[in-house]
Amino acid sequence: MKRYSAFAIFREALRQHQGWTEAWPSPEPRDRYDVVIVGAGGHGLATAYYLGKNHGITNVAVIDKGWLGGGNTGRNTTIIRSNYLQDPSAAIYEKSRSLYETLSQDLNYNIMFSPRGVMMLAQTEHEKRGYLRTERANALQGVDTRFIGPAEVKKLVPIINLDGPRYPVLGALWQARAGTARHDAVAWGYARACSAMGMHVIEQCAVTGVESAGGQVTAVNTTRGTIGCGKLGIVVAGHSGKLADMAGFRLPVESVALQALVSEPIKPCIDVVVMANTVHGYMSQSDKGEMVIGGGADGYNNYTQRGSWHHIEETVRALCETFPMISRLKMLRQWGGIVDMTGDRSPIISKTPLEGCFINCGWGTGGFKAIPGSGWAMAELMAKGNAPLADAFSMYRFREGRFIDESVAAGVAH
Amino acid sequence: MSRRLASGGRLIDRARPLKFTFNDQHMSGFAGDTLASAMLGRGQVLAGRSFKYHRPRGVVASGAEEPNALVGLGKGERFEPNQRTTTTELFDGLSATSQNHWPSLEFDLLAANNLVPQFLTAGFYYKTFLRPRAFWKHVYEPIIRRSAGLGRAPDAESRDPDRYELVYGFADVLVIGGGVAGLQAALAAGRAGARVMLWEQTAHWGGRAPVDGVEIDGQPADSWIKSAVEALEGMENVSLRLRCMGAGVHDHGYVLGNERVADHLPGASGPRQRLWRVRADRVITATGAIERPLSFAGNDLPGVMLASAVRDYVVNWAVSPGRTVVVTNNDDAYRTAIALKEAGEDVPVIADARDEATGALPQKARDLGIRIMTGTGVQKVKGGKTVTGVALCRIDSDGSTHTEVLDCDAVAMSGGWSPVVHLWSHCGGKLIWDDAQAFFRPDPDRPPLGHDGAGFVACAGAASGALGAGDGLADAHAAGAAAARDTGATGDAGHPARAEAPEEAPLRQVWIMPARAGYALRMKMWLDFQNDVKVSDVQLAAREGYHSVEHTKRYTTLGMATDQGKLSNINGLAVLSDALDQPIPATGTTTFRPPYTPITLGAISGEAKGDLFQPLRRTPMHDWHAANGVHWEPVGQWRRPFAYLRAGEDVHQSVNREVLNARSNIGLLDASTLGKILVSGPDAGRFLDMLYTNMMSTLRPGKCRYGLMCNENGFLMDDGVVARLDEQSFLVHTTSGGADHIHGWMEDWLQCEWWDWKVHTVNLTEQFAQIAVVGPKARALLERLGGMDLSREALPFMGWAEGTLGGVRARVFRISFSGELSFEVAVPAAQGRAFWDMLLHQGRDLGVMPYGTEALHILRAEKGFIMIGDETDGTVIPQDLNLNWAISKKKDDFLGKRGMERVAMTDPDRWKLVGLETLDGSVLPHGALAVVEGVNANGQAQTEGRVTSSYYSATLGRGIAMALVRRGPDRMGEVLRFAGAHDARIEARIVDPVLHDKDGEKLHG
Q: Chief location of this protein (chain A) (predicted)?
C-alpha cells in the first residue's frame, strides 16, 4: 500500500499522478477463505479490518453484490455520537466514537472525523427529564455529555429559534466530542487497509446461497462461483432477512425506507449537529456547505430506496421552524435507504443457529456512528466466540425478553 | 464582447425597459429577459466563481441546466443564494450579487488554489491533512469550509416574509414539459377526453422549436404553438400551468410540481411559490433534451457556451456573445452559426470533429459564407477571465501542435444531446444506451410500475430520444393518445401535427478533444464546471480503483453540484468508461433523484410555520389559563398549565401552594386533555379484555375500573380508568399524550386482526371538558351547584353517575389521581368554560384554586401512583411496578401476556418500584442512578436502580422520590447510594412508595 501524505501528493504531482495505485484491487475470488464477510459496507469492512488488526486473521474475503459502501454507509447523514441511555448501547457507541477519533491516522486515509459536537434539543418538560436522565447515565458510563441551557444552545447555534411558538427550546443534551465524518471515506479507508493486509475485497459478487454440513457453515454460493469459508459473517443491513433465510434461520428484523436530503451548498452557518426529536428532524452542515437533513422512517416495510414524500415535508417543516433562516435555501437532492429495524431498535451482533455463521445487523436508523465499534465487537465475536461489547446484542435476547430499548419516551406525561 | 443586438428578440419587449443591479452596479434590460440575457446584453460575461478553484465563471447554458451563473438574489430577509441567472426572470429593481469570492468577483484571492491544480487533484483531501490530529478540527476543516460553500448564508435571524402554498391535484394524464411535444401529447390526451394537466417550467410555451426554426403543419412554430395553446385552453378537461417545474415522480403516480407564482412579481399578493402534489394515473414526461458540452482544454472559460444556448440568446433575447467560433460533432450546432450569421454576427469558423459535413444545415452555413473545418477540434481556448481566442488542432492528434489560432469572444460548443430522463428514472424507469445517437434514453419496455403493475410514466418527444421535431411530434401524439386510452378515455385523439426540418447527419462520438490529448491538456478539460472536476480527475479516480460510477462521482464530486450533473454526467461516465476500457452501458449512470431542479425549503413546508406549524389544541378553559398567570407546558399538541403564578411567586412557590391547597381545600385541574375513547358494540367487552391486562367485560354499568395496556412485548404503554356506560358501551380514558396513539392502536387491531369483531371506536377527547375537583371540600362545592346526589352512598369511590350539575349536563366520575376525595366532572365542551367559572365562583369561600401539571405530578407521587412516561419508559412491565393485581389470571389471552412470560421478565433480579427517602431530606436528582462498587465487563460503573420521579413535597416538607431498584420491595429500609453531580453520592432509604393516606380514608371519604 502506498502511504498517503502531503509529500506523496507532491511527489506524484511531479509525475502527473501516474504512480497512484488502486486503493483496493479487484481480485478474482479464491476457492476458500478462513473468513468470508458478506457485505462490503462500513460494518462488514470494519469487521474484516479488526479481524486482521486485532486477531491476526487475514485470509479474509469481503464480498458485496454491488459497489462497496453503496448501502447505508453511503447514504446516511454521517452523525457520530454515543450519548445513549442503556449501558450496552453506550459501551459500543462510545467505543466506536473513540475509534473514530484516530481512524484517519489508523487507516492512513482522511475520513474527516469532525468532532464538532452534537446536541439533542429538549423541547418538552418530558424530553428534558429524559435527557437529564441520559446525562446521569452517561456520567457513569464514561460518556462525556452535559445538559446545557437555552442560552448556551443559542451561543453554539446562532441560527436556532429558541422561542418557536409551539415548542420552545428548554435546553439540550450536548456531547462536545461527537460529530460527523465523511461517510464514503470510511468504507474506502477500511477497504484500502483490508486490501493492504492481503484481504480480498470483491465487488459485484452477489450471494445466492449458503452451504453447510452437519450444522456448520462451509461455503457461500455467489454469482462468481462457490466460495468456501471457515466462518461466515453476514453484515448486509436491509437485506439481512434474505441472507438469514439462505442460512436457514429467521430474524426479528423489518426493513423500511429512511430518507435524507441535502440543500444547495452555502457558506458556513452552523458548526454543530442539531437533533430535534420532538419535531422529528436533524441537521448539520457538510464541509461542502450543504445542509444535511434527516427525519423519520416510513411506517411500512419495503425495499425501495425511495420513501414517502410526506416525511420530507414533515422534516423540512420541523427544521424551518427550528432554523427559520433556511426557508429560502433549496433542497438539492433527496434519497432513501433501507434500514433494518429490530423490535427494540437496537442492533444484533450475534452467533446464529448455523455454527460458524455470525450476523451483524439491525442498526436501524443509526448505524454509521457505530461502524468502528461494531466491527471491533463483531471481529472479536468471530475470532473468540464471545465479546463483551457484543454480549447484550445477541439475537436470542428477543426470545428471552432482554431488550435494549433506547426509546425512553414510550409515553408522555399526563 | 457580448452585447444586445439592435433588432430581434422574440421574447423581449423593448418598449418596457427594466432596471436592476449586479454587485451594486446599475444595469438595465427588457421585459422578457432572464437575468442571464440581461447581463450578457450589458456585456457582463463574468458571473461568479467556481466551487473548488475559484475559477472565473460565466453563463454556459440558457436554462435549468446552468451550473455556473449562480447569484445571490434579493436583499435582507428576501435574500436567496445560488439562484440561476438563466431561469430568473428579470423584474424592475432586481438586485443580484455574485458569489464565492474574496474580496471581489474580479479579483479573488482564493483563486490561488488555481495556481497549484496539480496538487489539488480529485480526492487529494483523503490523502493529506492527517497530522497533527487536532489540526483537522481547528485548522484544516475551518479553512476548507470557508473556501467551500457557494452562496452566502442568509442572516442568522432572518425570517422568510413570503408565503408558500401546498396544493393537491388529480389528473388522468399529467404532461410535464410544454414544448411542442408536450403540447402535442396534451392535445392528443385532451381530445380523447382525459383529464389533462400540462406543466411548463419556463414562462413560455413551445420550448426550442421556434428557436430552431421548425415549421409545423406548414406554419412557423410560433403560430402553431399559439393555436395549440388556444385549443388546449378551450378544453374544459385540460388545465395549463406555466412556471411549474415537474420536480419529482414518486411511487403510485404521485408527482411534485414547483410553481413559481410570484418570483418574477415581487410584492404581489398571494404565495411566492406553490408546491403541487398531484396524483396522476399516467405521467408523460416531455422534458426535452439537454445539449452536452465538449471536453477541450479551457472549456470552462467565460465565453465558452453551449451552442444551443448561444442560439437561444440570439433568437429569444437578441443578445450576441460576439465573434463566435462554433465547435461541434453534429449538424444541430450549425443552426447556431446560421442564427448568428443571420443576425449579422461574425462566425469565423465552424470546427467539426467529423470527417465530412455534407447535410442540409452545413450546406446552408456554407451558402452563408461560413468557413467549415472538418476533422478539427479545439486544442485550447485562450483567455484569462473571458475568451480571447481559440487554437484549433486535428481531432485525432495529441494536441501538441495547433493548426490555427483565431481571435474570438466566444466559443459555441456542441457534443450532442441527452434526453432529460430524470423524471422517468425517479421511480425506477430503466434506460438503454443508444449508440447511434450517443445517449441514454428511456427503455419503453421497462417503465416505472404503478399499483396495477402497469407502467405509469411514458416519455414524449426528445425526452424519449426522438430528437427531430417530426419524429418528436408523432411520438408525443402516440404517447398522449395511449395514456388517455389507459385511463379509460374513448374520444378521438386526432392526428399528430407534421413538422418540417432538415435531415441531419449522424454525430461522431467525441468525449475528449483532441482524441489523444496529453495530461497537460486533460487537466484543463472541465467536466463539471461548478465543482471543478476535470477529465484528469475522472481518469485518476479510475486508476485508483474507484471503478463504479458511484465511486467516481463521490470521489471526484462529479455531478454533485447544484445542477446535479445535467451537463457533466454523460461526458464524465464516457471518460470513465474509456479509462476502464469498457463500453458506456457497462458503466451505467448514477441514480437520478428528485428534485429535477432544487426547490425552496419554504415551499416544501407550505403554510405550516409559526403558529400554524402544528395544530395547537386548546381546551375549553385555555383562555382562562392564559389570563391567570399560566406557565405553559407543551404536551403533544396541547398546551397545559404547568402552574399558575401569582404576583411575587416563582414557579416552585406556585406549585407548592397549589399542592397544599388541594390537600387542605379544593384544587381544580383542567383534565380535558385526558383521552376519552368510546368503545361500543356487542364485542366491546371482549375487545377491551384483549387490550387491557385486567378484566373489563365484568365491569358493571355505573362503575369505573383502572386498567393497564401493554404492547405485545408486555411493556406498559398506557393506563387509565374505564367506565362502563351501558351493556355495549365503554368510555376508555387514556393518558393525554396517549389518546391518539391508543385510538390508532385500537383501530390497528380491529382493522387488521379482529376485523370480524363488532366493535366501534370514536375518539371523543375534544367533545368534553373534564375538570377534576379535588380535595376534602370537593363534595361540598359540587353539592352547592345542586342537581345530583353525590353522597358517599349514592356515588361511592370508582362509581360514576350522569345528571345535571348547576344546570349543566354532566358525567361525574368518582375517581382520584391525587389520593384526595375527588370527582372528575365531564361536561359538554361548549359549556366547559362556564362550568369552570361556576366552580371558581361558587367555591371562592371554600378555598378553590386551580392547579397545574406539576402539582398533579406531586400529588400522585405522594400517593405512590405511577405516571406513564416517568415510571415507565417502554422497558417496564406492570410487575415491575407491583401492579400484579391488575393482571388477570383468568383470561386466556391479552396483549402482552405471552411477552411478560419470557425468562427475562420473570427474573427476580428485575428492578422494581419502591419509594425513597433521602437521609438528609433533600430532593434526589431526576434520573439519578444507584451505584454499587465495581465496573462491568465494558468498564462502566455498576448500577442497581434509578430514580423515576423526584419532587419536593410541600405536604411532607421534604424530598420524595419513586425509584426502580433491583429486588426493591424485598429491601425495605436499606440505604442506597445515588450518584449526584461531580462524584457526590446521595444516600436514600428504600421505603413504601405510598406516603400519603396509606389506608385510603381520604380517597374513599
A: cytoplasm
